[in-house]
Structure formats: structure tokens, C-alpha cells
Amino acid sequence: MKKLVVLGGGESGVGTAVLGKKQGYHVFVSDLSEISEKYKKVLLHHAIDFEEKQHSQDKIFEADLVMKSPGIPDKVKLIQDLKHKDIPVISEIEFAGKYTDATIVGITGSNGKTTTTLLTYHLLKNGGLDVGIGGNIGDSFAKQVAEKSFENYVLELSSFQLDGVEDFNSHIAMITNITPDHLDRYDYDFSKYIASKFRIAKNQTKDDFLIYDADDKVITDWLQNHPVASTLVPFSMNKELEYGAFLKDNNIIIRLNEEEYIMNTSYLTIKGKHNTKNAMASMLASKLLQVRNSAITESMSSFEGAEHRLEKVLKVEGVSYINDSKATNVNATFYALECMDNPTVWIVGGVDKGNDYNDLLPLVREKVKAIVCLGLDNQKIIDTFQNVVDIIVETAGAEEAVKVSHKLAVKNDVVLLSPACASFDLFENYEDRGRQFKEAVRGL
Fold first, then answer.
1. What CATH number is attached to the domain comprising 163?
2. Which residues form a coiled coil (predicted)?
3. Is 75 annotated as a binding residue?
4. Is 320 annotated as a binding residue?
5. How many helices (H) and strands (E) in the chain?
6. Do 77 and 125 belong to one domain?
7. 350 has binding-site annotation
8. Of 286, 282, 235, nearest to 128 (Cα)?
9. pLDDT along the chain (444 residues), means of 10
């Protein structure tokens, strides 16, 4: 019996363990941290062997195959040792992909991938397709392959998940955009990060499709120098295209295979230029999978958006509070600030992944009346913006940040949580940060 070792007892790890057991592997799950009760129950229910708070190397090195969770960097000594012993180390996506014949829509990018994944899923499901959603969002892809076997999957794929891909393929791949992010995992080399994103097209053939932002110079330059085998399906806000999607006079126009479909942007429930792009990408995928035009238009006007992504929380004394906790990099915050039409109190900060805040200066100058820092080390933020914004206040948690913002804001202002940073200094993750923010707002 072949041995599968799963490193990490979270959503992707436990899902892989369940699928591995079903496929006849002897499975062992190992986690350096404590495994949460929710996941322990699943492992016990399936009689899967596991350990926590340690990695027993003797057991791990007996593996025929290792699946590592996306949070574990390749540079870790244990992973390097496994590779030296020629034990294959793959991702959950790679493992689960071997056991499904489903049509896969894989979505990656530095920003917009969660919204685009949710929107594509919404369009396909309402269009009558049998479809599951997974990857970096929702239930583990592997667990769904083990238990549900949908005909189609929409998967949000991070660069970390794509790093572990060898044979996995998306029939429809999407790259929303590429901006510097997570460079600490890529030796601070942007080209390595770009290459990681493009692994989504690595196994595509001429019968597959790559949907991408034709206005993104990083993507178009890379494609010129590294051609892919698949059919290119571009979208653009700036130029008319013979094939793909583009914007003209407030209409999204989609041209595929001699057919033209036009939808006015007034049907979009999600606002901002970046969301128009996310909509174009999702609509292209839906059209390629034969969803009817009427179903697409209807679904667009009923889509609610992602939690923690420009999520309207409450209006208190005429001040709007917006939760954009999912903005963990500068580019995401750029989109958020671009959408603000009223004077804004901006809550920013956390674990900086090598951010360059200079791109935000013009928007901050135009829109931000005060900055409230929410992080353990805010010096870089203060240094960048002290000459642009008169009021900069440091706070030590979500509740304090909200109280200070409440004092600084007046009627018709906006208080925007858009941190541009990871959350691990004060919170468990960006969801925890967003929930604490919302609770604090409701407590005003």
C-alpha cells in the first residue's frame, strides 16, 4: 500500500487526507501546530493517522508521496530534505486533479481572484451547470473530489498552490492581473513570482483557453517572451478587440466565435474599474462554457460580492464604514481608494510584505483626510504619508482603530479598513481582522 504523508492539518491537508484514504493510500497527517477540533473530528471519523505539534521525520521520510499545505514555504529544511531523497512533494490541487475528469476553471492573479472566482461560480451555477467552488476559498477541492464529484469546478489558485503543480490543468485558466506580492517567498525576485502565476497555463493545449487582462503590461510582456499553447482570450478596458471582451460606451462587449454579446455596465452590482475587469473575465468563462446570455445578465445583477472585500458594514451618524480587510497588498488598497467618492478616514497597516506605498500617494492626497494605523510597526506608513495627510494616529487593535476613526469622521465621510498588509501581527487572518472591525463598528 502506497504511503501518502500530508503536511498541515488544515482545510487543504485534511481534504487531501480524506481523498487519499478513499484512493487506497495509507495516509499520515503531520502538523507542527495544534490541529483544530473541527479537523480532528474529520480525521478520527475517517480513521486517519495523525500527529500534531511535531513532525516525526522517520514516519515522514517513509512516504511515497508528500502533499504540503500552501502555507509551508519550499525553503523549509524538511521540504528540502524530502526533495534530496527524491520523495515527490506536491500541492492539494495537483493531487486532487488526478482523481477528477471535471472541467476546471482555474483563477489566479495578485488581486481580484476571490471576487472573480465567486462571480464565475455564481454565473455557472445560475446558468444551470453542475459546479463546485474551491481552491483557496471554501471547502477543500480534494474533499469535494472525494465526496461530491461535480462536473465542473471553479478554483481560486494562489501562487503557492501553483508552485506544487506538475500535471494539473485548467481547461479555462484566468490571470486577473500580476503585481508584486508575496515576494518574500520568491527571493524578492518579481520574475519568479510571475513564472509561478503562469504555471496555471503550463499544461494547457490548443483546446484550452487562457483569459487574461490585455491592459496588464506584466502579463502581455511575459506572454510575448513565453508563449503558451492555449487559445488566448484577452479582455480590455482601453481597446476594442476582435476576440475577447472590451468596454465601449459603458457597455461590456464580448466577441467569441463570430458571436457578439453586449451588456450595459449598469447591470453590475460590484463597482469600480477593477470589478468591471473581474466581470469581463467571468463572463468570458461563462460564454466559453455555453451559458446563455440572458442567464449571464440576470446573474450579474444578483451577485453580492465577497465578504471583507469593499463590504459595506453600517452607516453610523452619517458616516459609512467599509470593510476591505482582504486588501493585503498595495494594489488591492489602490482599487479600494479609487472607489471612494467621499472624504476618507483610512485604516491601514499590519505585516508589510515589502510594500511600496508610493503608488498610493496621488489617491491618498486626493481622498484621505486622516490615517489610522493598525499594526505593530507603522514607521514606513508614517514616513510615506506624513507630508500628505495632516492626521496620522497609531492604534493597537480593531476596536481602538474604529473608536479613533469615529472621532475623526464627520457626516458624509467614509471610514475604510483597507490595510494593504497581512494581518498576522494582531489577528489570526484577514477574516478575523474584518470580523473584529465589523463588531467594533456595530458596537459604536
1. 3.40.1190.10
2. none
3. no
4. no
5. 17, 20
6. no
7. no
8. 286
9. 95 96 97 94 96 94 94 89 94 95 96 90 96 90 94 93 91 93 76 92 97 96 96 97 96 94 91 90 97 94 82 93 92 89 95 87 96 93 95 95 97 96 88 95 94
